[in-house]
Write a structure and sequence with these properties.
8 helices; 7 strands; alpha/beta; globular; seven-stranded mixed beta sheet; Rossmann fold; 245 residues
Length: 245
């Protein structure tokens, strides 16, 4: 078990993590986009763009966006990659309701669809997708190894996984500055807008506990990926991972 798997939003019951994560995201769905963009100073869209640039040379036509949330990554993938089909998968229906509204407003409903899925037990057949993406979501898995193995399973041979995830900076002084920001400003502002103070305390704790960098590359290899690499962005606040089946 990885440390973040035992961290939960509300009650200290790791066996109940998936249900608590679903409840948390349903609770904060109405303010999620505004909070995320403001708390990251709107840099998060640039991180997503870099993650999708990793896929552009391969021209994937069928994509799965894991932990799709309110659909920002799926919508950007539709614009940048011009695929035939994108499926956004998430456990929180309230988040995907917002994603469906945003997709309809951009007339992308023929390209993007959303499904409630347990990302540890995907219902898709083996070797279904050319690419799998995930933005700021795998940190919430109750079983990281199983979640990555499911991503591997549904990828076609030679398919690619592109992940963008929040991480803790490793170097001075950004590590110290990020700790101050994430332990004071982030939970205070999150509580102010979302009215769920525990959600943004959970965010900070899960970032600090999540494996990153070289360790995450080893975990991707363990899941079966033949190639895996990482690149830190914005002084290590965010990390891109890229893997090939």
């Amino acid at each position: 078990m990885y440390q973040q798997e035992s961290i939960t939003p509300y009650t200290p019951n790791a066996n109940d993590k998936a249900r608590q994560v679903e409840q948390m995201f349903n609770n904060i769905a109405p303010t999620y986009d505004r909070l995320n963009h403001r708390l990251s100073w709107h840099i998060d869209n640039g991180w997503r763009r870099k993650a999708l640039l990793q896929l552009q040379p391969y021209r994937p036509q069928h994509l799965l966006d894991i932990a799709t949330g309110t659909g920002d990554f799926a919508i950007m993938a539709a614009d940048m990659l011009q695929p035939k089909r994108i499926v956004g998968a998430d456990i929180a229906e309230a988040m995907m309701d917002i994603a469906r509204q945003k997709t309809a407003s951009r007339h992308l409903q023929d390209t993007i669809s959303f499904q409630r899925q347990d990302c540890l037990n995907l219902t898709f057949d083996d070797d279904t997708f050319d690419a799998v993406t995930a933005a700021f979501g795998i940190r919430n898995f109750a079983d990281l190894d199983r979640g990555l193995s499911e991503m591997y399973r549904v990828l076609k041979p030679g398919g690619h996984l592109s992940i963008v995830e929040l991480t803790q900076p490793v170097n001075f002084p950004m590590r110290q500055l990020f700790r101050i920001y994430s332990h004071s400003v982030l939970p205070w502002y999150g509580r102010l807008l979302s009215k769920d103070h525990q959600a943004y305390q959970y965010l900070t704790r899960s970032i600090e506990a999540f494996p990153q960098g070289e360790q995450m590359v080893q975990i991707l290899h363990k899941a079966g990926f033949a190639k895996a690499s990482f690149r830190r962005l914005t002084f290590g606040i965010c990390t891109l991972y890229f893997a090939t089946k």
